[in-house]
Design goal:
The complex is a heterodimer of chains A (445) and B (328). Chain A has 445 residues and is of the alpha/beta class. Chain A has 14 helices and 15 strands. In chain A, the strands form 2 sheets. Chain A has a 9-stranded mixed β-sheet. A 6-stranded parallel β-sheet of chain A has the order 3-2-1-4-5-6, with helices on both faces. Chain A is globular, with a radius of gyration of 22 Å. Chain B contains 7 helices and 10 strands. The longest helix of chain B is centred in the first third of the chain and has 19 residues, at 2-20. Classes of the chains: A alpha/beta (445), B alpha+beta (328). Chains A and B meet through helix 2, helix 3, strand 11 and helix 12 of A and loops of B.
Chain lengths: 445, 328
């Protein structure tokens, strides 16, 4: 019964995807796990391409290869050859799978530079998109056009035009029944799933307010080296440039904002807030702020108070709190629900939970191998990313910003041309410092 | 002139280094308070006399595991031990260059002046919202704990390190042969230890519970503590009685952690209980390579330091750090 159902779904999927890809005949995808009578011949293999070979991309590729499906990493792409080679070296070194069997990345399937993604994507059935987020809309659009299933990292864009491109592409992915998983891994994390089940069942009543935090000490800085063009410097040090990163409110804090959206089952309608560069303001820190405090308002008037900070020596906190008419929920420490008097009515011990980063790949590749269409994360990924961008527009401008105005903005952060000798959209002054937003002065719409 | 003064200053620093640093100076074998130079942070050390003790647990002990035997009589050299687990306040001086300064407020650049290798930014918040100042430092790898010891040794001129597994158990037992240093009664545990049932899902400030007979706090529970040893289930079958054993690590995991934690049930807090580290403690680190400094999934592991009474010579110390930190 189970197998028959799967078989039908699989045929539907193959047919649908092939038609959508313009009549190109798709490689049949058959799980080697369904029955032992299937041999894992080359034809059954799910082929993977990794686009963006940094630490996270490498991690995602390793997690994909660690699933139990019959798959092969066939192509890799990065702007930089050294990053690609380091990543491949690390993938080959990892335990838990037979790298010699699972990795088939040859000289002619390594693609370096800004345009390599197309050739890498063309070679695969499933694509892992893990470059800096600024490139995500372009890569996602191309991969869906080519009929590929997707694992892509968050955030999924850095500006409104990028978000709209991802939303439009998400629609196409749905039509083509292509699975898309976004690396907002809390959706694949047991304690969050258990909590949300209860919250959506009314365990804390109506949510009237929430708090979300990613307060930490900040991230790496990569030094400027002799002979680097400005474009190369920004690409290497991408965290500190908005066109690439979106600021840390998008790059990290999107996780926590997304959790509250998930709980609310909606997205904010407006936001206002404050932020700036209080401590971290060197030449090496590009243009992004070191702190943001934003109030997001939902349609029903409930408020999400959001803090994110990159300042050393301060209180650290990465978690979410929900306040409802009947109780409260917290993901700080042990995930729990309390009544309004603070008595714990439910909590979850996460000691033996699976790794959510592995779980998202396990579920994605299981669906793909069975020919099932189960995951459509891109729309939520785009809207939660948009939530973070809305917050950034609010702190940069110091104004009250409406969701619709923000989403419909035509202000693009991206360069006109992608090349190492091209001019990036932001340049340092004569002393080497980058201009950054000034609340009350900077226009964001 | 200025150059000459600088050279004189440098020379006197070198003199101080040679004569007072690296443990050449004998101090009375008594409790003392160590201030981290040029900070307001200090910690307390207490002397642990050397002696013989029975390592491991008898087969009759409740909840005993196979790896706690066979019991063997070991001989331990004297050392001072941290009265408390190392706190985030102490660890922070090492972690943050702005806090780690010379007398004139400039950044401390290490004994050789070439700079200090400091912990990388953690992926998430290593306190997991459980508290920072006054609370035990947690979530670091054994490498990071050892790097702290090395830094502290250079900075203070005193050789500090992690205890071996045997030294740790000797200090924890404090002359007792019972399951806990206060006896066998689990009912008494709440007075001495933070464990899963009484901790409210968090570690607590160091020193809130009763100490063991030798004045050491939180040996049972709160955070589990890194030792110097590689973990192996049959370690005790391989060691010779009358020695002070050390299972020198040759691979990253498993290594031995002792004392149990706030996240454990009482049986894991017993004096003889042994816990092994694993890659699972980094499972939510999304990057490859994963952090050398931080574990994303062990907010229940910290450490405590010792100062061997017999200090190492500078050469021996260099050899020691190379031995314990060489993990590629």
């Amino acid at each position: 019964m189970e197998r028959k159902k799967t078989g039908i779904l699989r045929r539907d999927f193959v047919k649908g995807a092939a038609a959508a890809a313009g009549g190109i005949i798709m490689t049949p995808l058959v799980s080697n796990a369904t029955t032992s009578t299937y041999n894992s011949s080359v034809d059954d293999t799910i082929k993977i391409a990794l686009v963006g070979c940094g630490g996270r991309g490498t991690g995602a590729a390793v997690q994909a290869l660690s699933t139990k499906q019959n798959l092969k990493l066939v192509a890799m792409c990065d702007a930089f050859e050294d990053r690609l080679e380091t990543s491949l070296g690390n993938i080959m070194k990892q335990e838990g799978y037979n790298a010699d069997e699972k990795v088939a990345v040859k000289k002619k399937s390594k693609f370096v530079g800004f345009d390599g993604y197309k050739k890498a994507i063309d070679m695969a059935d499933v694509v892992i998109l893990a470059t800096p987020p600024g490139f995500r809309p372009i890569h996602f659009e191309y991969a869906i056009e080519q009929g590929k299933h997707i694992f892509m990292e968050k955030p999924v864009a850095t500006d409104a035009p990028g978000i709209r491109k991802v939303l439009a592409t998400a629609e196409k992915a749905k039509q083509k029944k292509l699975n898309v998983v976004v690396g907002l891994q809390r959706h694949y994390q047991t304690n969050y799933r258990e909590l949300m089940k209860r919250v959506h069942d009314g365990a804390i009543g109506e949510i009237t307010s929430a708090q979300a935090y990613w307060n930490g000490g900040g991230v790496w800085v990569r030094p400027r080296k002799e002979g680097m063009t400005e474009m190369e410097y920004q690409m290497r040090n991408w965290y500190y440039f908005n066109w690439l990163c979106g600021d840390h409110i998008a790059e990290q804090h999107v996780h926590n904002l997304d959790v509250v959206n998930w709980a609310k089952q909606s997205y904010p309608v407006r936001a206002q807030g404050m932020g700036g560069r209080e401590v971290r303001k060197g030449k090496e820190n590009g243009e992004i702020f070191d702190h943001h405090f934003v109030e997001f308002e939902y349609e029903d008037g409930s408020i999400l108070s959001s803090q994110c900070r990159h300042i050393k020596g301060c209180m650290n906190r990465v978690s979410e709190f929900l306040h409802g008419t009947k109780g409260r929920a917290s993901t700080q420490g042990k995930t729990s629900i309390t009544d309004l008097k603070g008595n714990v009515i439910w909590s979850h011990r996460d000691r033996d939970d699976p790794n959510p980063y592995q779980q998202e790949h396990d579920e994605l590749f299981d669906a793909i191998a069975k020919g099932e269409y189960k995951y459509a994360d891109a729309e939520n990924g785009a809207k939660s990313t948009m939530t973070a961008i809305l917050g950034r527009l609010a702190t940069y401008s110091g104004q009250l910003i409406e969701w619709d105005d923000a989403l419909n903005s035509d202000l693009s952060l991206m360069p006109k041309k992608f090349a190492f000798d091209a001019e990036p959209p932001i340049l340092p002054d004569s002393d080497g410092f980058y201009p950054s937003a000034i609340p009350g002065v900077t226009k964001v719409l | 002139m200025i150059n000459l003064l600088k050279r004189l200053a440098l020379f006197s620093i070198l003199l101080i280094t040679v004569f007072s640093a690296f443990g050449q100076e004998e101090i009375p074998f008594e409790p003392y308070e160590q201030t981290i130079p040029n900070s307001k942070i200090s910690f307390n050390m207490t002397p642990i006399e050397g002696g013989e003790f029975l390592l491991g647990s008898p087969e009759t002990e409740a909840n005993r595991k196979e790896d706690e035997g066979p019991q063997k009589k070991m001989a331990i050299e004297p050392f001072w031990m941290g009265v408390h687990e190392v706190t985030f306040g102490e660890y922070e001086v090492f972690r943050e260059a702005v806090l780690d300064v010379n007398e004139d407020g400039s950044e401390y650049m290490g004994a050789g002046g070439a700079g200090v290798t400091r912990p990388s930014p953690p992926y998430e918040d290593p306190t997991f919202g459980m508290g920072k100042y006054g609370y035990p430092a947690a979530s670091m790898t054994q490498f990071a704990a050892l790097m702290y010891c090395k830094w502290l040794s250079e900075k203070t001129g005193v050789f500090y390190r992690l205890p071996t597994e045997a030294e740790w158990e000797y200090a924890c037992r404090a002359g007792t042969n019972t399951a806990y240093s206060f006896g066998d009664e689990v009912d008494s545990l709440d007075a001495y230890a933070w464990h899963y049932e009484n901790c409210n899902d968090t570690y607590h400030k160091v020193g809130e519970k009763k100490p063991n007979p030798w004045g050491l706090y939180d040996m049972h529970g709160n955070v589990a503590e890194w030792t110097l040893d590689q973990y192996s289930e049959d370690f005790y079958t391989t060691i010779e009685e009358g020695t002070s054993p050390w299972a020198q690590p040759t691979k990253l995991h498993p290594r031995t952690v002792r004392g149990g934690s706030w996240n454990d049930d009482p049986d894991a807090l017993r004096s003889a209980a042994r816990t092994e580290s694993s890659m699972k403690w980094k499972r939510r680190d999304p990057q490859i390579p994963k952090s050398y400094w931080w574990n994303t999934d062990s907010p229940f592991v910290g450490f405590r330091i010792i100062r061997p009474k017999k200090q190492l010579t500078p050469d021996e110390m260099m050899e020691f750090w190379m031995k314990v930190l060489d993990e590629g």
